[in-house]
Amino acid sequence: MHKVIVYLDDPAYARQQMPAAAGPTHWVLVACAPRMTHRISKWVSHSARENWRAKWADKLFGAVIPPLQERGDAVTPVLAKGPLPELTRLLMAEHGTEQVLDVRRPKAPDGPQPGNWAPGALMGLGALLILGLD
Q1: How confident is the prediction along the chain (134 residues), in pLDDT tens digits per residue?
Q2: Model's pTM, two decimal places?
Q3: Is there a contact between 9 and 60 (Cβ–Cβ < 8 Å)?
Q4: According to a count of CB atoms within 10 Å of the terminal CB, is the N or C end of the chain lower?
Q5: What is the CATH number of domain 2-107?
Q6: Residue 100 backbone dihedrals phi, psi, to 5 degrees
Q7: Residues 7, 12, 17, 20: what is their CA dihedral angle, to the nearest 10 degrees?
């Protein structure tokens, strides 16, 4: 059976990006929960963060696993709790596979792109022109 490790964070995006396997496949699905800011620890306990991560992963796996199992594929869900390179080495050794897919949704770039004006900048420029005319 062909084994594949897949990193994912969005079920809809993952379904679009995951290739259809030719034969029976064992998918090792690794849920990569969104990062929380370092300031959240002031307001939320560690156990509450872990509970949220577990619920988030259950929801993700609930959307991704059933279609794979309907095809007859085996699925092993894993929740990432540490650095991905270390987890990848452990999973590769455990499952004896070399194939790793990263189908996480790409992050949006921070801030406006060069040559593009942000809406707030345009409004500020308009207000400056109005005040300058008075």
Answers
A1: 789 999 999 999 988 888 877 788 899 999 998 887 777 777 888 888 899 999 999 999 999 999 999 988 999 999 998 899 999 999 999 988 888 989 998 877 655 555 555 566 656 666 666 666 65
A2: 0.74
A3: yes
A4: C
A5: 3.40.50
A6: -130, 130
A7: 100
